[in-house]
């Protein structure tokens, strides 16, 4: 039997804290959430390794550092309504659900959403709502959101997502095709601000229209 708790503690220490992740909520949460329940059985031994892993359907669960970094940037305090685009394995969803008040997560591939829903139900999360569909258009009925996290890359920041941010809201999103960058968007009273943060590689955000 592997000691997953020990592996998780080592992951937080050597991959996250050592590289500058400081938000105690993020570090504590990643120490707690069992990442190995979100990876395919054949990958179990790599659950806490420093890399993204395939989760089927040509998709991947993001590298732990990227999950931590994107979560930290959103600076969640606990009372937020958060929209996530690209449920994938559901691991990032769990991290958000631990910290925020309510998470709304949209996934295009039904099979992935169903698998993620099962894993998250087993862990007894009750503050997550799931939707299967094209997240390029956000989740109009549930908008506006305090924060939006997108984990697949469009060519440009989708307009609907910007519009579904509250004033004071913020979004973290990978943008680009061959070359991608994490972009941080904040919504002020009269305008949006945009800041490039770091080069990344995500699967493309598939658009269905
Ligand atoms: N956060 C996930 C990352 C999954 S990879 C994790 O850590 O497991 C990106 C996911 O975005 C894939 O599951 C993919 O199917 C999904 N995706 C791609 N285009 C999408 C779209 N237009 N709407 C919603 N989800 C989309």
**Distinct small molecules:** S-adenosyl-L-homocysteine
CATH topology: Rossmann fold
Per CATH, the architecture is 3-Layer(aba) Sandwich
Helix fraction bin? 25-40%
The rough form would be described as: globular
Task: Chart the SSEs and their pairings.
Layout: H1 4-16, H2 24-32, E1 53-56, E2 59-61, H3 64-73, E3 81-85, H4 91-99, E4 102-107, H5 110-122, E5 128-132, E6 145-150, H6 159-163, E7 165-175, E8 180-187, E9 192-200
Parallel strand pairs: 3-4, 3-6, 4-5, 6-7
Antiparallel strand pairs: 1-2, 7-8, 8-9
Bound molecules: S-adenosyl-L-homocysteine (SAH).
Residues 59-62, 85-86, 88-89, 91-92, 106-109, 112, 134-136, 151-152, 203, 205-207 line the site of S-adenosyl-L-homocysteine (SAH).
List keywords for this structure.
209 residues, alpha/beta, 9 strands
Characterise the protein shown here:
A hairpin with a 4-residue loop joins strand 7 (165-175) and strand 8 (180-187). It is globular, with a radius of gyration of 16 Å. The protein has helices spanning 4-16, 24-32, 64-73, 91-99, 110-122, 159-163, and strands at residues 53-56, 59-61, 81-85, 102-107, 128-132, 145-150, 165-175, 180-187, 192-200. The chain has 209 residues and is of the alpha/beta class. Strands 5-4-3-6-7-8-9 form a 7-stranded mixed β-sheet. Strands 1-2 form a two-stranded antiparallel ribbon. It has one domain (4-200): 3-Layer(aba) Sandwich (Rossmann fold). Bound molecules: S-adenosyl-L-homocysteine. Residues 59-62, 85-86, 88-89, 91-92, 106-109, 112, 134-136, 151-152, 203, 205-207 line the site of S-adenosyl-L-homocysteine.
